[in-house]
Amino acid sequence: MRSALLAALICPPLFCAALPLAGHAEDAPAPKLGPNAVLLSTDNAYLRSSPAPDYWALSSFVKPQFTTSACGVASVTAAVNGLAGLPANAEDTVMSQPELLDLVGDDTWKAISAEGGDGVKFEQLVEYASKAMAARGLNDSVTIFHPADSSPTPTSDQGATLREWLAANEASASDALLVYFNQGVVTGDWDGPHVSVIGAYDAAADRVLILEVDQEWYTPYWTPVDVLLEAMLKPTSAEHGVLEGQTGGLVRLAL
Question: What predicted TM-score, i.e. pTM, was given to this entire model?
Fold first, then answer.
């Protein structure tokens, strides 16, 4: 959800044009990913040795979010397209993100997903995923794991529940998991709320594959389960306006 906030953070022209002070070296460029994210393109052994049904069912349908605020609709579109499968008839296209928004017909979802929109809250993601499943004629079975709702529960218990969800999802392609999380906790960069698709769970290595819809900046990457839980639990900061205080979790869409 790299929304209009990015434009507001750009420095004024006069400041941008200022020369660095004498004796101050320019900052070295930061790496694309921090230590908590490993690119699938460099580490793909799991997909070559395991069935990974979700990856093969969903990855072809994960497309770039069509605006900087549309990670939610991009992830829902990928999930419902993956669950529905490729249309059988030659004249039928794969449903796009704008087409899904039109099919669902929810003006609020359209507004928050437009360029410069607010982005989606966790409870809104749940609502719109359910509406999208119904609109596509799929079984409307949407359930959630929202660890912040169980804040008195020890983090170890929340981690155990998260692993149970991931393991169940990895067993077949009959469901899809969306993850709402603080992207910067995982990537080491932008500190803000984000939605993407879970592509696989490597239980032996205790890590999760994120199929990124934020494809202007990233390609799929692995992250440890404990890091993903931390990213779900971190509240959104005040600079994100109406999203302040949002925490994340998993949204499961099942056939």
Answer: 0.89
Distance, C-alpha 11 to centroid of its chain:
28
CB atoms within 10 A of CB 109: 24
Q: What is the DSSP letter of 87?
A: -
Domain residue extents for the chain: 35-254
Determine the residue type at 183: Q
Determine the Cα angle at 41 with ends 219 and 44, to 5°. 125
Residue of 240, 238, 208 lying closest to 223 (CA atoms) = 208
Mean pLDDT value across residues 143-164: 89
Q: What is the pLDDT of residues 60-98, one digit of tens each?
A: 999 999 999 999 999 999 999 999 999 999 999 999 999
> In whole angstroms, what is the distance from residue 246 CA to residue 121 CA?
7
CATH assignment of 35-254? 3.90.70.30
CA distances from 76 to 12, 33, 79, 171, 222 (A): 37, 25, 5, 20, 20
